[in-house]
Amino acid sequence: MNLSTTLTQLETEQLLRRLSEPDLAYLFKHTLTQETAYQSLLRENRREMHRRVAQAYEQIFSDALDDHAAILATHYENAGDDAKTLEYSIRAGDAAARKYANAEAILHYARAVEIAKSATHLASASHLSDLFLKLGRVYEIASRYTDALRLYDDMIALAQTRADRALELAALVARGTLHSAPTPLFDPEKGTTMAMHALELARELTDQPAEAKILWNLSLLNGMQGHRNEAVTYGEQSLAIARANNLREQTAFTLTDIYRAYVSDGQVRRGLAALEEARALWRELDNQPMLVDTLSSTTMLYYFTGNYAESVDFHHQALELAERIDNLWNQSFCRHSVGNIFFERGDPTYAIETMEKSIHFGIKAGFIVPEIWTQADLGWVWASLGQYDRALKSAQAAHAQAEAHFQRWRPNTLAILSRIHTARGDPAAAEDYLQQARHLLAAGEFIWAGEFHLGIAEAEFEMTRGDFARAAQMAEQLIAREQAMEFAFSIHAAQCVRGQALLALNRLDEAGAALAEAQRVADTRGSKWILWHVFAAQSELQTRLGNRDAAAELRAQAREIITRIAEKTPADARASFLNLPKVRAVTE
Question: Span 172-184, mean pLDDT?
Fold first, then answer.
């Protein structure tokens, strides 16, 4: 085949034209003409042409082959060269994965896996395992969990066919992670069974990297079920093996998840330290999805510890990175809890928008947590604005997701449902939900925000039925519990309710102290929502003390905050907010 002669002939007949000089680049006038010309070549000639084009690319772009790996893989595939196709498919997949072009990475890795499976002489067992895991990881990042599960099942079947126990172990570990994380495939029974089988196999094969990963899976799995002691034990065993073998990535993965176990065990500072170390490792490893995951986790933990400024700062860092790499999971996760801060700071519209985006991206990513926690929080925001139908719809949807996926989180959704019914004036329903939550919440078990909502729900319920002593007691217990756990995100709200209860009991000095503390914390955090309640209660206190001018000033401050909140409330909820009895008591 004389390529130069053929090109000259086609150019003369005006079927194609040269694009640039001195490079020989051509463009067909019509796609059909191009296809006809291509198909007119004999099969062997086509193969040879693709081979020569690929070789030309390798020569011209020898210092930037990764940039052209995709087209090289295509040409070598059409040339029938499996070895070269495999090499460049992997390089193209790696290049796409580095740019978080997940669809492209999946395409290239999938082609590489198929070649490696059929041409066994081209890929060692470890090479094949690495290929499967690369493809599976991109599936997971792209939230294609069912595809990942199918891939790992194929991997197990292939391993058993080849009697390759190392390949089987790698597949078991990868599949176990799918059943241990908060995805639609979360399955404690399957996850535990698979992990125990894999752990036995890893120890038999003396595969310590696999053992560290399995122990990480078990830590994650137990943490998701509320077994904090087991979660800490397995996590620290994983860390010990990972550190001893300098497994930097596994160390980072384990630290990224063990913080939850530490926090649930009352070790908040250790949790923060674990996240800090994990962030440093992910930066060192240049793993952007996992870096943004730890930024999002830090956002959430700073919220729960009452450090609102730090939480918002990490939220912005996480959001910028999540959007830049188009990571749906973390576009949801970084918004998961921070909407509560925006609400407390007096911007209901932005809070609702943030929460709804968290839920939206969570659904797209297969991330279940926002459909439970954030959706329940959104229900309380709507209730706070007097939108009770919206509130119940959101909280009931959250509770249904908890029932279906993570039943240990039901106390939280039940507590919020109780708060909503208390606010809307249905004490019978409120008490029923409270009783269900009390029954489900194991003595001494800490489930993050669940205890806050239950404690506040109980105090608010007792306030509405006039048992102010009981309400004060419930608020005091919640404050003590949070102080013991170093979890301070609800202390200002609890102090406000306690002050209101003590005021109703005419214990004025104690009420003043409680309200002053609530004001101090709310001022520090910029919590306008709590402040207007505090100012209203302090106004009542000053009235009882006979300080009319002070009472009027406090009432004016409460009224000013309410006005500003109303301005930032969705237009269709503004009237219901301003018509709330507590609001009208201040504004009229």
Answer: 90
Provide the pLDDT for residue 562: 97
What DSSP state is assigned to residue 266? T
Tokens of 205: 């094969």
What is the CB neighbour count within 10 angstroms for residue 346?
22
- Check pLDDT > 50 for residue 446: no
| CATH architecture label of 466-588 | Alpha Horseshoe (1.25)
User: How far apart are alpha carbons 482 and 13 in whole angstroms?
Assistant: 83
- pLDDT for 97 equals 87
pLDDT score of 82 = 85
Residue for token pair 């009895």: 581
Give the chain's mean pLDDT: 90
Phi-psi region of 23 (alpha: psi -120 to 50; beta: other; left: phi over 0): beta
Please tell me which residue, 123 or 41, carries the higher pLDDT value: 123
Q: What share of the chain is helix, strand, coil (3-state, %, to 5)?
A: 80, 0, 20
CB-based burial, 553-569: b 16+ in 10 Å, e otherwise: ebbebbbebbeebbebb
Task: Give me the CATH code for the 368-453 domain, please.
Answer: 1.25.40
DSSP-based three-state secondary structure for 15: coil
Euclidean distance between CA atoms 342 and 354, whole angstroms: 9
CA dist., res. 561 & res. 536, Å (int)? 11
Both tokens of 523, joined, read 């001022």
Mean pLDDT of 462-468: 94
Domain boundaries, the chain: 1-36, 368-453, 466-588
Label residue 314 exposed, middle or buried (CB < 10 Å: 0-12, 13-18, 19+).
buried
Nearest residue to 528 via CA among 406, 346, 399, 380: 346
d(Cα 88, Cα 76) in Å, to the nearest integer? 9
Burial of 481-503, coded b for 16+ CB within 10 Å and e otherwise, reads bbeebbbbbbbbbbbbbbbbbbb
Within 441-547, where are the H helices? 449-464, 468-485, 491-504, 508-525, 528-544
Tokens 């806050």 appear where?
452
The H or E element containing residue 252 is helix 248-264
Q: What is the mean pLDDT of residues 238-259?
A: 96
Burial class of residue 528 (count of CB atoms within 10 Å of its CB; 0-12, 13-18, 19+)? buried
Structure tokens at 127: 């090479």
* pLDDT tens string 56-75: 888 887 788 888 888 888 88
Residue 312 contacts residue 494 (beta carbons within 8 Å): no
Q: Are 279 and 251 in contact (CB under 8 A)?
A: no
CA 8 to chain centre: 58
Query: Fold identical between 368-453 and 466-588?
Result: yes
pTM above 0.85, yes or no: no
